[in-house]
Amino acid sequence: MKKTYLSACMLLLCCGFATGQTVKVPFTSDQWISRQADMVQETYMGRESIFLKAGDIYLKDVGFLDGTIEYDINFPKERNFPGCYFRMQDTAELEIFYVRPHQSGNPDATQYTPFFNGEAGWQLYHGKGYSEAFDLKFDFWHHVKIDVHGLQAEIYIDDMQTPLMKVTELKRAPKAGGIGLSSGGAPVHYANLQYTLRPAVASSPAPIPANGTGGLITRWQVSNVVSSSLFEKKYQLTPAIKQGLTWTTQQTEPSGIINFSRFGRLTKTENAVVARISIESGLEQTKTLSFGFSDFVTVYLNGQALYAGADPFMSRDYRFLGSIGFFDKVFLPLKKGTNELWFVVAENFGGWGLQAKFDDMEKISLK
């Protein structure tokens, strides 16, 4: 399949970008851009299809912002994650809906997640509005429809009249982009891809609570990306550690989750950031802080290590997902005056984030 951007752009311009017009995109050689794709066009179970054995294919310049995307998908009974990219800025910045055939019937059989800097966030975004149970069939043509408008999307499968999934807040800021199809790591067939553009819907993100509301931390100082080895067997913070860090102030999402992939890119050697906050205490006291993290964390208070944890995918058993939540607690021995709390969070894959809240805010304030 030729990697010709010009042919793809010209064809799509000829098809028309008119609002409300449905554009059907056959799998011909001059329409799709390949990314390490191993594929063949073939008739499969009565439908003209692309057999995507590996990799991705995408349409870079469709200018999809609001509208619908529809396609048919057929997969075997094995572990894979095939799905559709949308509002794709490039291969590292996009939204995706995909299915997990090996989890058919389970709560995570389907998934919406964003990508920031090449990092998927499914460990941060799970449960209602992000993943839903569905009984997937194998060697069967499922029909998928994705209806996108502003910061929301509805996902329909087969002949559903009501959506399987309502994504109440897409995590990336709305911006027109490409559409793509992914093999998800195992062979899959796609057929009958089409999309329709609609006028953009004006929408505003949900408000973020003020820092400390209900105990929730919603503003952190976040460091540059560093190697987690900088903190190995470091039970106290040293000037040498601190001097290599630079800081920006970042807000969380309304839930209190902060997705570090928004602010930095992982490398083979740099896989950690520090999130810090100052706590002003009116007296010497101990406060309980509930938190969640992905995937590894070390907690320091006033330069002293208090806690370390590891929650990567499958680290506890074969179904352990490493999903974030307020599942851990730490007891903070606060001194009277200013206290500095550090979370050093390192990533493996699947979501790089943190959320934290105090059980109560009596006689403390956050800075």
Automatic annotation (TrEMBL):
Q: Which organism is it from?
A: Chitinophaga rupis
Keyword Signal among UniProt keywords: yes
- Answer whether the UniProt record assigns the keyword Signal to this protein: yes
**Signal peptide extent:** 1-20
Question: What is the name of the protein in this document?
Answer: 3-keto-disaccharide hydrolase domain-containing protein
Q: Which UniProt keywords apply?
A: Signal
Name the Gene3D superfamilies on file.
Exo-inulinase, domain 1
Entry superkingdom = Bacteria
